């Protein structure tokens, strides 16, 4: 998804309460802003539009002291490992 926003490219991250992370609580933008790694269980949309539980990990990218941005990778979680709230 190089050069695209996740909300335009189809991933559309949400947390276990249904909060859309792409606009207000984006782990990638937070990592770019403060240079800190993050890890968070979320749901992504697959190509068929179905929600898939994944563990998202973000890492800052630097060249010396200069911030270049960040990368995000994820792994699919078994449903037994995902903390789903009672409201869902």
Account of the protein in words:
18% of the residues lie in helices and 36% in strands. With 88 residues, the chain is α+β, with helices and mostly antiparallel strands. The longest helix is centred in the middle third of the chain and has 8 residues, at 27-34.
Task: Give the structure's gist in a few sentences.
It contains 3 helices and 3 strands, in the order αααβββ. The protein has 88 residues and is of the alpha+beta class.
Strand order of the largest sheet: 1-2-3
Form type? globular
Give me the Rg, rounded. 14 Å
Counting H and I runs of at least 4 residues, what is the number of helices? 3
Helix content percent band = 10-25%
Largest sheet: 3 strands, antiparallel
Q: What structural class should be given to the helix and strand makeup?
A: alpha+beta
Ends: how far apart?
29 Å
What attributes characterize this protein structure?
3 helices; 3-stranded antiparallel sheet; 88 residues; 36% strand; alpha+beta
Write the layout of secondary structure elements.
Elements (H helix, E strand, L loop, with lengths): L5 H4 L11 H4 L2 H8 L3 E8 L5 E13 L2 E11 L12
Antiparallel strand pairs: 1-2, 2-3
């Amino acid at each position: 998804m190089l050069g695209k926003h996740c909300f335009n490219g189809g991933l559309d991250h949400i947390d276990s309460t249904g909060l859309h992370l792409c606009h207000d609580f984006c782990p990638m933008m937070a990592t770019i802003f403060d240079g800190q790694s993050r890890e968070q269980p979320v749901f992504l949309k697959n190509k068929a539009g179905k929600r898939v539980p994944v563990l998202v990990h973000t890492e800052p990218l630097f060249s010396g002291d200069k911030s270049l941005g960040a990368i995000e990778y994820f792994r699919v979680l078994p449903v037994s490992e995902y903390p789903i709230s009672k409201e869902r």
